[in-house]
Amino acid sequence: MNAKTLTAVQKTQYWRDGYLVLPGFKSAADIAAVRARADHIVTAFDPAQGQGIFTTQEQSRSTDDYFMGSACTVRCFFEAEAFDAQGQLRQSKALSINKIGHALHDLDPVFNAFSRSPELAQLATDLGLTQPQIWQSQYIFKQPGIGGEVRWHQDATFFETVPITVTTFWFALEDATQDNACLWVEPGGHAGPLRERFVRVQTPAGPAPGPAAVIERLNAMPWPALATAIPVEAKAGTLVVLHGLLPHYSAPNRSPASRHAYTLHVTDASSAYSPDNWLQRPDPLPVRGF
Ligand code: FE2
Fold first, then answer.
1. Backbone CA torsion sign across 207, 209, 212, 213
2. Backbone phi and psi for residue 203, each to the nearest 5 degrees, phi listed first
3. Is residue 82 packed enough to be buried (19+ CB in 10 Å), middle (13-18) or exposed (0-12)?
C-alpha cells in the first residue's frame, strides 16, 4: 500500500463504526521479517528470567514487577494454560508464549521498521492524530489449543487521555478467522462510555503493597452480547484500526492453528496522558511517534 490517504468513505466508516479494516496494508516480506524476529526473541528467552503469565481473567491481571517492567523492555509472557499441574510446559516453549511486549517498536530494529513508515504516519494523520505517540507494541501469538481469551474491553482503559485519543493498530500476521479466534467488535460501540480504567496503585511514599495496578470500574454499562457483535476476519497483512472506546473481544483459540498479530497503541500528544496509566515512559526511553 502506498502512502495514500483514507477516502472520505473510509473516514466516515471509521467514525461511525469505531473500526476500519484495511486489507493488504503489509506485505508478505514485512510479515516474514517480524515473524522471524519474534521467533528469534522467543528462542533466546530463558524462562528463568521470569515466569510471567498474561491473562485478562483476573481483576488485577499480571501486575507484578515483571509486567510493570515490560513498559520499557522486551519481555515474553506465557499463556495462562501453558503449564500443567506439575508446572511443566504442555507444549514447546515456542507454542506456549502468549505475547511479547511492550517496547518492541523502540528497542528492536526489525519491529521499529515495521512500526514506523510513511504509510502509518499518513494513516495516523488521516485518523486525526496530530501528534501521534506510540506507547506500546505487542506481538500476540494466540497459540494453537491454549491461546487465551481476551475478555471484552476498551483500549482506553489502559491508555487514558483527556480527551480520549488512543487508537489501536492491529496487524494480522496470519489469517484470522472465527476458527482461530479472530477479533470481535461491537460496531458503533465507541459511542458508549469508558467502562473501566487500569491504574497504578501508588502512595505518596511510592508504590503501595499488593498489585502494582488495578482495574477500576467507572461505568456499569454491560459489555456487548456476542449476538450484537461481529467477527472481524482478516487475511494476513490486513490492518484493523480500533477506536480507543470500541469494545472488542477474542475467544480462546482451541483450533490447531495459531493466530499471530502485532499491535500498536497510539495517543495524540495534544491530549493529556494520565499519570495513573500503568505504562509510563520516563527517560531514557521517551515516547515517540511515527
Ligand atoms: Fe484491546
1. negative
2. -115, 165
3. buried
How much is the pTM? 0.94
Residue pLDDT, tens place only, 56-89: 655 344 447 888 889 999 999 999 899 888 888 8
Q: Name the one residue in this structure whose C-alpha cell is 517492567.
A: 69
What are the structural domains of the chain? 18-273 (2.60.120.620)
- Ligand 1 centre to CA of 264 (Å) is 10
Matching residue, cell 528497542: 107
User: Quick check: helix, strand or coil at residue 22?
Assistant: strand
CA of 167 to the centre of ligand 1 (A): 10
Cα 236 to Cα 5, 99, 173, 270, distances in angstroms = 21, 18, 5, 33
How far apart are the CA of 244 and the centre of ligand 1, in A?
Answer: 8
HEC states along 99-162?
EEEECHHHHCHHHHHHHCCHHHHHHHHHCCCCCEEEEEEEEECCCCCCECCEEEECHHHCCCEE
